[in-house]
Amino acid sequence: MREYIKLSLPAIMNILISKRWSKPQIAKAIGVSPLQVHYYSNGKTKNPNPSVCMNIFNGLTIEGKAPLVDTYESYEELENHLKAFK
Predict the structure, then answer these.
(1) What's the whole-model pTM score?
(2) Torsions phi, psi of 62, nearest 5?
C-alpha cells in the first residue's frame, strides 16, 4: 500500500522551488503559466481545478511519498470529484 502525505499546492510549489525547479519547469509540468506558479507558491490564488494539477502527481514523490492536494484522501476520491465536472 502506498503512503500519502497531504500538502497544499503552495507547499508543493515551494518544495519544488527549493529543489531548484524553475518556475517555467513547474508551470510546464502542471500545465499553467509561470505567473500562476508564482501566485500558487505565494498562496495568492484559490486552489486550481484538480484536473490541472494531476500531471505533476503522476510519479512525483516528495521524501519518498506521493503528495495529494488538499482534502483528497485517495486517488479514487479525486477521480470521483473530477467525474462530477465532466
Answers:
(1) 0.43
(2) -120, 115
